[in-house]
TrEMBL record:
Protein family according to the UniProt entry: Belongs to the UPF0111 family.
Species name: Candidatus Beckwithbacteria bacterium GW2011_GWB1_47_15
Coiled-coil residues: 135-162
Keywords: Coiled coil
Protein name stated in the entry: Phosphate transport regulator
């Protein structure tokens, strides 16, 4: 089934579920970023993100339930499954970041973490826009968002190098290990966002 056939009414549910899921990812990312920027990060922030992640898990269950019940889907079953799993990796890593920041009490005191969450928040917003272009079959606009995501991911790579250089001057070994773990989770998240972007484009191209 080609991409133009995705607009058949009975298949809209898969778009709607993907939209709902990416909206939750956006909310979780924004919550983490803005709470850190405003110095308002707290255990409550983590609980709110965990709640969003739980809602995202429910959507995953809905998607696979519907895939098992539906013979004809907008795109290949495997592609749909891979796409929603890739999106779910994003909110899982936002949650993992928030939990580590909370456990290690790094909230508000590390400029590099704030810089990372700023990049991540921008990348996830672009990913939401990318998903929004799927139904329009606008490869040109999708490529525009994809280029922005790739540029931001390159910034994250450079930021990680800056973070590691900074850690070389860290005298407290415990603090060094904790910060390195958080930096690497955040950088992994940027990689996963880029992977989601690439997968989304691949699925669209495959089904045109």
């Amino acid at each position: 089934m080609k991409l133009k056939d995705w607009l058949i009414p009975q298949d809209k549910v898969f778009f709607e579920l993907l939209d709902e899921h990416i909206n939750l990812v956006v909310k979780a990312s924004a919550l983490l970023h803005h709470s850190l920027q405003k110095g308002a990060f707290s255990p409550k922030t983590v609980r709110l993100i965990e709640n969003l992640e739980s809602q995202a898990d429910n959507i995953i269950t809905d998607v696979f339930d519907k895939l098992n019940q539906t013979f004809i889907t907008p795109v290949d079953h495997e592609d749909l499954g891979n796409l929603i799993i890739s999106a779910d990796d994003l909110i899982d890593l936002v949650q993992a970041s928030a939990r580590r920041i909370n456990i290690y009490k790094l909230d508000g005191q590390n400029l590099k973490i704030k810089q990372f969450t700023q990049i991540i928040n921008a990348m996830i917003q672009e990913s939401q826009k990318l998903v929004g272009k799927i139904r329009q079959m606008s490869q040109k606009e999708m490529r525009s968002h994809a280029r922005k995501i790739h540029r931001l991911e390159n910034q994250a790579d450079n930021l990680l190098l800056d973070c590691l250089e900074q850690l070389m001057r860290e005298k407290n070994i415990k603090s060094l290990i904790q910060k390195k773990e958080v930096f690497e989770i955040l950088e992994t998240l940027t990689d996963k966002i880029e992977e989601f972007c690439n997968l989304t484009q691949k699925v669209v191209m495959k089904n045109l």
